[in-house]
Write a structure and sequence with these properties.
The structure is a single chain. The chain is of the alpha+beta class. It has three helices and four strands. The chain has a four-stranded antiparallel β-sheet, covered by helices on one side. A hairpin with a 4-residue loop joins strand 1 and strand 2. The longest helix has 21 residues.
């Protein structure tokens, strides 16, 4: 998923691309760890203003939760990372499952 996303968004600055790839990884990992298939990931980049939208869709009705993590926690940081890196994020329930989305700002590259 990360390689695919990187190839789709290669024109982003390195800093923006790292943030986007981390959010892609966290949303995709949540699908693999907690959700049901079928699933898919969608990316969209708008130019002005420069914004990247990420949507992870899966067949599970279970919603993601922000869980407090302690310094020695091995897990439970995924949605906290998504929240910190995203301008905004949310969940939309669907007839069969849900869509978890995140929007990240990016710098316009001349």
């Amino acid at each position: 998923m990360r390689r695919w996303a990187q190839s789709m968004l290669c024109e982003l600055s390195e800093d923006d691309l790292v943030d986007v790839l981390l959010v892609v990884s966290e949303l995709a990992s949540n699908v693999f760890d907690h959700a049901r298939f079928p699933a898919r990931l969608r990316l969209r980049k708008s130019a002005e203003p420069c914004v990247v939208s990420i949507v992870a869709e899966d067949s599970s009705p279970d919603l993601p939760r922000l869980r407090p993590a302690t310094p020695d926690s091995v897990r439970s940081r995924g949605m906290v990372i998504v929240e910190k890196l995203s301008e905004r994020w949310g969940v939309v329930r669907r007839l069969t499952g849900k869509s978890v989305w995140a929007v990240l700002p990016c710098a316009a590259i001349p």
